[in-house]
Amino acid sequence: KQEVTQIPAALSVPEGENLVLNCSFTDSAIYNLQWFRQDPGKGLTSLLLIQSSQREQTSGRLNASLDKSSGRSTLYIAASQPGDSATYLCAFSYGSGNTGKLIFGQGTTLQVKP
Amino acid sequence: DAGITQSPRHKVTETGTPVTLRCHQTENHRYMYWYRQDPGHGLRLIHYSYGVKDTDKGEVSDGYSVSRSKTEDFLLTLESATSSQTSVYFCAISDRSAGNTIYFGEGSWLTVV
Q1: Contact A65, A24 (CB under 8 A)
Q2: Tens of pLDDT along B59-89?
Q3: Is A32 on the interface with B (CB under 8 A)?
Q4: What are φ and ψ of residue B98, in 5° steps?
């Protein structure tokens, strides 16, 4: 059974810090992975999608990497802001024809203090 | 915004009553999904659809049924609601034009008392 682990479960940093969120998986036969953001009481917002053939994707202050050989993905947030406070979830798809069958991690709850 | 609308957004119902949640999309996506989110369990797939009248089970499908009679609507039904089905339910679509990026709706909060 595929398992996805996110470390740390919670993180509190001062504004302006660069930070890394980690996501590990047990089965390297992934199709793609996505990083999502979830604000309290809200739905999930897609941040970045990395196909299995890619190593990383960037969007603004966010950079996500994928290392299939080590079973790891990281989300790098540069120059963190209080508005970045949220829960960040990684999820993997294992089916090329049905990429919405996702296995989710438990999430990392981030607090950025002004 | 992937044009996903869920209804109702909040509902309180009694044990044993039927409940239907609706997911509506406006962009003709083929794949649609229903997930539930619970503390300690995270997000888990209930059912999904890969076309009109084409559906299949996910990880936690017991006690749920789905229907898709039109491309734009995917319905999730709890035939006889139980307290264990108190949860937040999310609909999602797979956007093929965006590299199969998965987009989620805003969620439906269901409480079974």
Answers
A1: no
A2: 999 999 999 999 999 999 999 999 999 999 9
A3: yes
A4: -115, 35
